[in-house]
Automatic annotation (TrEMBL):
<feature type="domain" description="ABC transporter">
    <location>
        <begin position="2"/>
        <end position="243"/>
    </location>
</feature>
<dbReference type="InterPro" id="IPR003439">
    <property type="entry name" value="ABC_transporter-like_ATP-bd"/>
</dbReference>
<comment type="similarity">
    <text>Belongs to the ABC transporter superfamily.</text>
</comment>
<dbReference type="GO" id="GO:0005524">
    <property type="term" value="F:ATP binding"/>
</dbReference>
<dbReference type="InterPro" id="IPR003593">
    <property type="entry name" value="AAA+_ATPase"/>
</dbReference>
<keyword id="KW-1278">Translocase</keyword>
<keyword id="KW-1003">Cell membrane</keyword>
<comment type="function">
    <text>Involved in beta-(1--&gt;2)glucan export. Transmembrane domains (TMD) form a pore in the inner membrane and the ATP-binding domain (NBD) is responsible for energy generation.</text>
</comment>
<dbReference type="Pfam" id="PF00005">
    <property type="entry name" value="ABC_tran"/>
</dbReference>
<keyword id="KW-0472">Membrane</keyword>
<dbReference type="InterPro" id="IPR027417">
    <property type="entry name" value="P-loop_NTPase"/>
</dbReference>
<dbReference type="InterPro" id="IPR050086">
    <property type="entry name" value="MetN_ABC_transporter-like"/>
</dbReference>
<dbReference type="GO" id="GO:0016887">
    <property type="term" value="F:ATP hydrolysis activity"/>
</dbReference>
<keyword id="KW-0547">Nucleotide-binding</keyword>
<keyword id="KW-0813">Transport</keyword>
<dbReference type="InterPro" id="IPR018449">
    <property type="entry name" value="NIL_domain"/>
</dbReference>
<dbReference type="InterPro" id="IPR017871">
    <property type="entry name" value="ABC_transporter-like_CS"/>
</dbReference>
Length: 346
């Protein structure tokens, strides 16, 4: 369990730079054994939050507790011991280029004072765990990004930590490699019970791996909860913006370029309808056609399923002039379906 209790972090003024309130009033808990996503835009405070968990920074006020130990109050040898139970992986892997894969993984064990024989056994186990046993004698420059991250993961797990912090660990990888690394992290969580904190600016990463998510903005947690719930009912504008990236609810370019802000004689009003929840998009189209007593054109649709819930958006063309458009808007709003008018097309 990781707990933030009324945590704030202020970086003091330095020369001509003003002080920065990087985190304010952070109060939340990450359950033991969970995979929790922490998502935020650049500068939101994500890295500051991570550095508080592993004790690299101290909070300006409040407490950070990791597995019953107040890491924010530790120093010296006690802090170093506590840090051994917190592994970390990074966007740019942070491997030593002069060491082989095996020797990179061995590094934290050497620092912890393990014997050479024990290190050899543990490194072999870890190479196997992350699926690159055949690369033990390769140098980082000879490996792909995905393989380097596997070494990063093995090194982070070497001292058998309870917590694994992932700071944008897949941001430098292509989508296919990202998926493979996220699958590996899911296995590690399942098999070893390691608590994973996933710092990211990509909702697709949260969606693929995390069960819980906290959205952070301006140094505050602005929304948090189960991933399926947040994805289907996002409340904060920042969450909504992250989601529209992953759902892609913008109109197709060919349609957007034809949109006119004024009604077009004999044309259609174009509406964007949000699909959230158990109701599938096609039911919305069918119900609306029945209500209007004429066909509704489906101009574009992006629907996904997350945690058994449909989510996405439909772009509909409503023929029949202003009266029909107003009737459609009223009907959808009456049924609590989020809708917005994008314009008109011929
Ligand atoms: N050591 C520091 N000294 C002064 N200000 C800092 C320091 N570290 C971070 N900040 C400031 O604190 C705020 C939060 O930064 P932080 O790095 O935690 O955000 P982030 O969400 O991780 O951003 P990014 O995704 O760009 O890394 C920013 O305004 C940043 O400029």
């Amino acid at each position: 369990m990781i707990r933030f209790e009324a945590v704030s972090k202020v970086y003091p003024a330095y020369r001509d730079k003003p002080s920065v309130h990087a985190l304010q009033a952070i109060d939340f808990a990450i359950p033991r054994g969970s995979i929790t996503g922490v998502i935020g835009r650049s500068g939101a405070g994500k890295s500051s939050l991570v550095r508080l968990i592993n004790g690299l920074e101290k909070p300006s006020s409040g407490r950070v507790v990791v597995d019953d130990s107040e890491i924010s109050a530790l120093a010296g040898r006690e802090l170093r011991l506590a840090q051994r139970s917190i592994g970390m992986i990074f966007q740019h892997f942070n491997l030593l280029s002069s060491r082989t894969a095996a020797d990179n993984i061995a590094l934290p064990l050497e620092i912890a004072g393990w014997s050479r024989a024990d290190i050899a056994v543990r490194v072999a186990e870890l190479l196997e765990l992350v699926g690159i046993a055949d690369k033990y004698d390769r140098y980082p420059s000879e490996l792909s990004g995905g393989q380097k991250q596997r070494i990063g993961i093995a090194r982070a797990l070497a001292t058998r930590p309870n917590v694994l912090l992932s700071d944008e660990a897949t941001s430098a990888l292509d989508p296919q490699t990202t998926r493979a690394i996220l699958d590996l992290l899911a296995n590690i969580n399942r098999e070893l019970g390691v608590t994973i904190v996933l710092i990211t600016h990509e909702m697709s990463v949260v969606r693929q791996l995390a069960k819980e998510v906290a959205v952070i903005d301006g140094g505050q947690v602005v929304e948090r909860g189960h991933v399926a719930e947040i994805f289907t009912h996002p409340r904060h504008p920042v969450t909504q913006a992250f989601l529209s990236e992953v759902i892609g609810d913008s109109a197709p370019v060919s349609l957007a370029s034809r949109l006119s802000p004024q009604p077009v004689a004999g044309g259609q009003a174009v509406l964007r309808v949000q699909v959230r929840g158990t109701e599938a998009g096609d039911t919305v189209v069918a119900r609306l056609s029945r209500e209007l007593s004429h066909d509704v054109a489906l101009l574009s649709a992006r629907i996904d399923e997350i945690g058994g819930q449909h989510m996405g958006s439909l772009i509909l063309g409503i023929p029949g002039g202003e009266a029909a458009a107003r009737q459609a808007l009223a009907y959808l709003s009456r049924h609590d379906i989020l809708v917005e008018r994008l314009g008109y097309v011929a």
